[in-house]
Design brief:
Structural class: alpha/beta
Radius of gyration: 21 Å
Order of helices and strands: HHEHEHEEEHEHEEHEHEHHHHEEEHEEH
Keywords: Hydrolase
InterPro entries: Amidase_CS, Amidase_dom, AS_sf, FAAH2
Strand content: 5-15%
Enzyme class: hydrolase
Number of helices: 14
Helix content: 25-40%
Shape: globular
Number of strands: 15
Strand order of the largest sheet: 1-3-2-6-8-7-14-15-11-9-10
Oligomer: single chain
CATH topology of the largest domain: Amidase signature (AS) enzymes
GO molecular function: amidase activity
EC number: 3.5.1.4
Length: 498
């Protein structure tokens, strides 16, 4: 029997029953990677010798009667997480030889749960792109169509899951970096509530792994089913033992409902600042029809919904002001001159990004206060709804675009071009207020590309969108593997490609 596309839950059951060993699962996963990853290029730092040793220890532990949540399950880890003995580069050539001394807290939790780490997955330069390519490790391709991106910055993890390279992976998300790759590759991902999962050790080299609270950014699980997301989130969730974990234990509330017909869902498919492509709109509608067919209450409008245009600008301000905080002083002065030249009437997202590059502390405090008003608006909305369904990006996976100046790139939406980074507005809808959001497959485009949507839930009620994702899985098709042979059928853009 081939195990590569079995769910983590199924593999746990098989391991407990003695139907397979961790060594067998690990050997099969490694063989698949060695066979197929030359063209996909998802696994940028393999760790096969230590994986086989860990699998052997897992089998010994099970023979002694031990039973941990992920005991013996092969997994992958995004390159940006520190793993002792492996390089952590974030795709940045000056740090190609940086080797952290200890594991990130989430890697430690994976190992404590019994997982077998196969290696690290590819990322874009500095995690700053919606694609996954860098000068150190090359380009990761979408397993469904190799001329297209798997997304970023957790693109290597999504491509690995879609290709059968391990049952689970962990990534991170500040601008859709979990959800967009899941959407582009046809897998599942969950962006947890801000602060729910400790992020220590997911830090750019050579910075020390401090237990800092990061604005907007989260770490989270990726999988091929919604139930596997929950399994992995339960391993990842909880405060850092060096800070809040000293005093607090985590108890997530149960999902609001167990039956689809009890859910109240707001469905959105239009944004005031960017159109939704026809393929993604069709995916949103498929989910809406599945909800209605299952008896859920589905609405398309609500007066309680916070202003989407203001939310998008606010998200860009918070995202960009944090990203450029360490720019050189000379760059800051140049940006200040450019920002001063903007018309007061220019309310475009490009203008919002430029102004945010020269935010003062006072500016940031004001933006943060507006964020709190939005959070209050979401609390009011979630008193009447249990979840919001909406796009993750306006299009399915787009062709590789390696223009070194991302500001010159464009995203094609049904034949019309828009600024590349404007597509982040849907991801920012959940990120800006810190809400949990689960990415689920929602069918395929007319060209056969995966299409996903996100289910946004109330803050710290992560189990609600996860349960809704589980209930929708069989109604919207769930994960489907690329056709056998497609993984190795295209010769370009691989490990040595750009």
């Amino acid at each position: 029997m081939e195990w590569s596309f079995q769910t983590a839950e199924e593999l746990v059951t098989a391991l407990r029953a003695g139907a397979v060993t961790s060594v067998e699962l690990t050997d099969e996963a490694i063989a698949r990677i060695e066979r197929d990853d030359e063209v996909i290029n998802a696994i940028c730092v393999p760790d096969f010798d230590r994986a086989r040793a860990a699998a052997h220890r897992a089998d010994q532990a099970r023979a002694r009667g031990e039973d941990r949540p992920l005991l013996g399950i092969p997994v992958t880890v995004k390159e940006s997480y520190n793993i002792a003995g492996l390089p952590t580069t974030w795709g940045m050539p000056p740090h190609r030889n940086y080797m952290p001394a200890e594991d990130a807290v989430q890697v430690s939790r994976l190992k404590a749960a019994g997982a077998v780490v196969l290696g690290k997955t590819n990322v874009p330069l500095g995690l700053q792109d919606i694609q996954s390519f860098n000068e150190i490790y090359g380009t990761t391709n979408n397993p469904w169509e190799h001329s297209r991106t798997p997304g970023g910055s957790s693109g290597g993890s999504a491509a690995a899951l879609a290709s059968g390279f391990g049952a689970l992976s962990i990534g991170s998300d500040i601008a859709g970096s979990l959800r967009t790759p899941a959407h582009f590759c046809g897998v599942y991902a969950h962006k947890p509530t801000l602060g729910l999962a400790a992020n220590r050790g997911m830090v750019p080299p050579p910075a020390p792994a401090l237990p800092a609270d990061l604005d907007l950014a989260v770490v989270g699980p990726m999988a091929r089913t919604a139930r596997d997301l929950t399994l992995l989130l339960d391993v990842m969730a909880g405060p850092d033992p060096l800070t809040l974990g000293v005093a607090y234990d985590l108890t997530l509330p149960a999902a609001r409902h167990e039956r689809l017909r009890d859910f109240r869902v707001l469905v959105l498919d239009e944004h005031p600042l960017i159109p939704t492509g026809s393929a993604v709109r069709a995916g949103v509608n498929r989910v809406a029809e599945a909800l209605a067919g299952g008896g859920a209450r589905v609405e398309r409008h609500s007066r309680l919904l916070p202003d989407l245009a203001e939310a998008a600008r606010l998200y860009m301000q918070l995202l960009v002001s944090g990203s450029v905080a360490r720019f050189p002083i000379e760059s800051h002065e140049q940006l200040r001159t450019r920002a001063a030249g903007l018309s007061a009437d220019d309310q475009s997202l490009d203008a919002a990004r430029l102004r945010a590059m020269v935010f003062s502390h006072r500016d940031w405090i004001e933006a943060n206060n507006r964020r709190e008003l939005h959070r209050h608006g979401w609390r009011q909305l979630f008193a009447e709804f249990d979840a919001v369904v909406c796009p993750i990006t306006p299009t399915p996976a787009f062709p590789h675009d390696h223009n070194p100046n991302p500001l010159e790139r464009r995203i094609d939406i049904d034949g019309v071009e828009y600024p590349y980074f404007d597509q982040l507005v849907w991801a920012g809808l959940a990120t800006m207020p810190g809400l949990p959001a689960t990415a689920i497959p929602a069918g395929r485009s007319p060209e056969g590309l995966p299409v996903g949507v996100q289910l946004i839930g109330p803050m710290f009620e992560d189990r609600t969108p996860l349960r809704l994702a589980e209930l929708l899985e069989h109604k919207t098709g769930g994960f489907q593997a690329p056709k056998e042979g497609a993984l190795a059928s295209w010769p370009g853009h691989g490990r040595d490609g750009r």
